[in-house]
Amino acid sequence: MIPAPRRPLSPAQQYLHLRTNPICRGEGKLDGAGLLWEYRVRPTPLSRQYLVRVTMKRDGTPHVAVIQPDLVALADGRPLPHVYSKPTRLCLTLPKAREWTESMRIDQTIVPWVATWLFFFEEWLVSDDWKGGGEHPSSGDTLVRHDGPPLRH
Asked: Residues in the chain with pLDDT < 50?
């Protein structure tokens, strides 16, 4: 018997999971359009701390941006690896491969993937060699804007 596909999780369900998971303790907003969640992460005990913003529109894929520190400034003039641009967002999945689906919990997938991406980013800052794998997004990819100042942190 083939199992039935899992039902998509609503932004409200995702928000509840984010609020209750201590690994991504933070603050957020939930409204009719979707959710916004901000939390701090340190990929290793020796790493700097990052303020991360996750946004998700209804029936959409989570978008992740690092709010602080400025990744472009950290790259010191080098083009950032493995990101979408305008605005800068982390490339965490292969969208065409459906590595992330709306039935997956953000706190159990996207949040750990962000820490892994940041680990490889910090290694790239030293080596100038992206070791995180994946396919790099093309420069023509269009994105939803996720601007605005951080929530209270």
From this structure: 140-149, 151-153
pTM: 0.85
Longest dimension (CA), the chain: 54
As a three-state string, the secondary structure of the chain is: CCCCCCCCCCHHHHHHHHHHCHHHCEEEEEECCEEEEEEEECCCCCCCCEEEEEEEECCCCCEEEEEECCHHHHHCCCCCCCEECCCCEECCCCHHHCCCCCCCCHHHCHHHHHHHHHHHHHHHHHHCCCCCCCCCCCCCCCCCCCCCCCCCC
Residue type, position 27, single letter: E
Query: How far is the C-alpha of 37 from the C-alpha of 72, rounded, in Å?
Result: 22
Torsions phi, psi for 61 (to 5 deg): -100, 145
Q: How far apart are CA 122 and CA 118, in angstroms?
A: 6
